[in-house]
Fold WDR86 protein.
Amino acid sequence: MGNSGSAVKVCTDHQGGINWLSLSPDGQRLLTGSEDGTARLWSTADSQCRGHFQGHESYITFCHLENEAAFTCSADHTIRKWDVLTGQCLAIYRGHTSIVNRILVAKDYLFSGSYDRTARCWSVDKEKQIQEFRGHRNCVLTLAHYSSRDVLEEEEEEEEEERVSRDLLVTGSTDCTVKVWWVSSGRCYQTLLGHTGAVLCLILDAPNRELFSGSTDYTIRTWNIVTGEQLKVFKEHQGSVICLELVNRHLYSGSADRTVKCWLVDTGERIQTYKAHKHSVSTLKYHAGILFTGSGDACARAFNSKSGVLQKIFRGHKFIINCIQIHNELLYTASHDGTLRIWDIRGICKRNKRRLKKERSVQGRSSQKGSLSRLFNNKVGCMVQQENGE
């Protein structure tokens, strides 16, 4: 059983639950989006609040942080872009007719998914809608983006018009489908059918042409994103699959059944189950051989990813942990209780590194022993052959 940890800092500036936490690519800042309708910018160097973004007319559902700009989407049907240095609102993207659930920034594009059953593409700089993706029969919950250059050979591309812009958007919906769209035309390239429940999460492995989707039907499905073929169905969860993480061809899935499972992508075999949660697993993050989870039971946990052993419990939140981030061996947890908590994880990271080093050393000795044993057996075999005149 893991020991409890106490937070090194608790940030209580928000007046409502924190729905999302985003880390800038350079690791210098964090962005929190809250039920209080505001977003806050935090320095990872000293954990101080460096910006307060106000302007949304309803709660913020999701946020995304770049190095110089922040993006927030809201139940007020809009998306906003903010200057991280001045806190000034740089752009308001209007067009959705219901709650905006999710945003994704890729290249010069800003993508959004909404309860209005559409996804949309915007020009980041021009505050202008470029494309609307219409075809889902219910709300769009999750998004992914890739370029066909990552997955297609030149001769595989079908139409000349698509060669101008080869970007594709993937959308998951409560209508039980996943759709793949050409960004340039708004045309649906693939509809992936198989789920019998809402699609809650997506994770893309473009180099291997694979897409993973988790659903309220308790399954994870793997798809070939070029052909649309369903490759595998991972079926062992007993509740909705809420979150996914892909690391070194290992897929980690967090579920309402209070567990995380680890699967070998190439075989579909489930190789580990991480237990101890007293409620749904709402978020997870892999870091340096450790699996960190956030749960509806208001605790974060650290597991040895290989053995499944619980190494630490982080207690202090009062409600569900909605998001976690890790930077410089600090764990950041954002909760519906309105607080951002920061935890020192150097101790468990160090212990884990020592354990990995020891395991490698043992494996090395084993391997050397095995080689000597094989060499000895080969020599004995040769001697037997010579004695038998073979």
Notes: DSSP finds two helices and 33 strands in the chain. Residues 159-164, 369-390 have pLDDT under 50 and may be disordered. The first strand starts at residue 3 and ends at 5. Residues 346-387 form the longest helix (42 residues).
